[in-house]
Amino acid sequence: MLTISKADYDLIRWEAERSYPQECCGILLGQTADRNRTVTLTIPCENVRLDAPERTYSIDPQQVIAALKLARSRGENIIGFYHSHPDHVAHYSATDLTEAHWFDCSYLITGVVKGSAIETESFLLIGSEEAKNFELEEIDIRS
Ligand SMILES: [Zn+2]
């Protein structure tokens, strides 16, 4: 399960709408206990995928490193990533799975239709590079 504050959840959905018709992306910092992750900070990032930003995304590796350093300084870790699907459903694509490498992290996807955020789903990356998969997980939104 992924626990997230309503403020962070709203920020992710606002980012998805703001970036439309391109994909937004960002990093989630937080804490992990067993298989439960709790978001403590949402970090919006640039989508550096300039070839087709309306259907792909890529976070600048330097931003990932900076986020990791920030997490460590807070005694936390990177626990997930988010991106949006302009005019598409909130389900991961084959490319999303291929390009996901952070195991036991949550990958949030927000579907955006005509500029309005529809559903947001979270998928936990499980397995190993040889045999990986996304598992739909529950999102617990705290106000
Ligand atoms: Zn995607």
Protein architecture, described:
With 143 residues, the protein is of the alpha/beta class. It is built from three helices and eight strands. Strands 7-6-5-4-2-3-1-8 form an eight-stranded mixed sheet. A hairpin with a 2-residue loop joins strand 5 (106-113) and strand 6 (116-128). The longest helix is centred in the N-terminal third of the chain and has 14 residues, at 6-19. It is globular. It starts with a strand and ends with a strand. The model has no long low-confidence stretch (mean pLDDT 97). The protein binds zinc ion (ZN). Residues 83, 85, 92-93, 96, 109 line the site of zinc ion.
Rounded to the nearest angstrom, the distance between the terminal CA atoms is: 16 Å
The small molecules bound here are: zinc ion
Residue-averaged pLDDT, rounded? 97
Mind summarizing the main beta sheet?
8 strands, mixed
Radius of gyration: 14 Å
Order of strands across the main sheet: 7-6-5-4-2-3-1-8
The SS-based structural class is alpha/beta
Which residue ranges are poorly predicted, with pLDDT under 50 across at least 5 consecutive positions? none
Q: What series of H and E elements makes up the topology?
A: EHEEHEHEEEE
**Number of DSSP strands?**
8
Tally of alpha and pi helices: 3
Shape: globular
Helical coverage, percent range: 10-25%
Proportion of beta-strand residues:
over 45%
Concise description?
Helices cover 22% and strands 45% of the residues.
